[in-house]
């Protein structure tokens, strides 16, 4: 690198005024400081020392005048170059040491190096060297908040010198220290001077002022005394400033930046563990609900479709309403209506089904007084034609004929699941053994066969179908007809059925093709899915609002950290990325957890309802992406606010 003989600092007629202040904080101040000088700036409170320091450190812009830093005119320099100069060429030591209390001593010392994007190994080495030089090696792994005041200030110096800056700016470095610790700081500053650093110290401390080679006094924003420059020493030659990015934009370097960002975000989330956990849970609940709604609506749709898809093409259901004891009084009329329906074109068969209200049916195995099985068994009555119409075989074959009366008397055909529930052995291939009977509402009913309901008749899964005389005395019965049509004709037939069954009042007969029913149930499933989805979106919005609020509060409480990062050269975009990444991580973890919760919820609901769960392979992706997007969106505003914080103001507070 080329080396020239130029002042380290050259101010010409610098003024700085603040809105609302009649007196400028700096007034036409001119000053030259040679490289390698150790200068103390003294003056009463309010005289403009900190303002001068902020201008020198490129934390603040003067209102007028010119400033050359190592020969480079820096008043008009772009923000990104100013960040780089701060990161590479200036070391700051602030009065309030601005240590990140929850981070380790090592990570505090390495902070500036992280901003420089130095590799992890070099970073650790340089930070350890600086810690060692400042006599803190024994506390290297400690959490910074456990350090004493003097140790903190030495750590602040270690952080400032670890990056190897050309100039050190220190604002009251001994302000909070006793004389012993002040003396240590002074000796470290002298040691730095001896290695060629240019040092500018603002101080009220006579000990520090005396240790400097040159004293400058400021009053009302102007220099009122200057002890004069010292001779250049052997280290006083300066190198050009670092204004261009040092790290290349290679894949490796980008990966390092990404790893640094992720590391910062993780440690920041870990430090605020409980807050992070609550946020993750908020996202998990919202996303979990959404994932469950997707999976459940798929599951229920599948359930509905597979249950009735076989019947959709050739079945019409006719609801005759509640028949209160009418079945037998009006059996003739019922048979007549059914005859007329079976005469309709495209009709293959028709049968009735009388379903008895569960409160009216007591079914037991051995005695009329024993307790009913745990699982509810439904009771229905029909004729043999029902089995033909819905296409269910019985064991033994044609057992259903016995339903049509005659000598056999009171008989029952039992679904396999109901038989198992009642403790009847269904393993025999020839049907129930002779003499097996049930007690139904106090009557002894002989079991003559089994049947296995299929998808068309899910309502008969656990049921007993009896001959009509068994239920003769029962009032509460829902009566319906099942009409089997030629394939593709349910809709045509359904229009004619009411007129055929009840020519006098066709309006009293309500007809549904299974296809209608399917639509209806799919709609119900969809409605349910939509309801859960809307609810989940509300939950996700709430999660996003809580995340945004928590993040906003965090930004406020981390003002000092943000100020420090900005002061030591972190760009606005780095600060923005840091907060955005925190939102992304919280949202993604919440989203993944929500995906798992939603899946588990669907499995539990499906298992308890006897459904086959349908878990689309995209569920995890949905959970993750909804969580990630919501996390990012909710952190945009707080991240933006953080990135806009003015380092000069923030560092004062
Ligand atoms: N951001 C600001 N907005 C308004 N006025 C400001 C701002 N910063 C500094 N000032 C004013 O400029 C003047 C110089 O302040 P400065 O902090 O530089 O003094 P100082 O010499 O460092 O004081 P001290 O020794 O008490 O820290 C003061 O009157 C102060 O109120």
UniProtKB/TrEMBL annotation:
Name the major location: membrane
Its annotated compartments are: Cell inner membrane
**Keyword check for Zinc-finger:** no
Tell me the keywords, alphabetical order. Answer: ATP-binding, Cell inner membrane, Cell membrane, Membrane, Nucleotide-binding, Transmembrane, Transmembrane helix, Transport
Q: Which GO terms describe its molecular function?
A: ATP binding; ATP hydrolysis activity; transmembrane transporter activity
According to its record, how does it sit in the membrane? Multi-pass membrane protein
Q: Which residues cross the membrane?
A: 528-553, 574-607, 619-642
Q: Which domain of life is it from?
A: Bacteria
Q: Name one GO cellular component term.
A: plasma membrane
Which ranges carry the ABC transporter domain?
Answer: 9-245
**Is the keyword Transmembrane helix in the record?**
yes
* CDD domains listed in its UniProt record: ABC_MJ0796_LolCDE_FtsE
The record's similarity note reads: Belongs to the ABC transporter superfamily. Macrolide exporter (TC 3.A.1.122) family. Belongs to the ABC-4 integral membrane protein family.
Q: What is this protein called?
A: ATP-binding cassette domain-containing protein
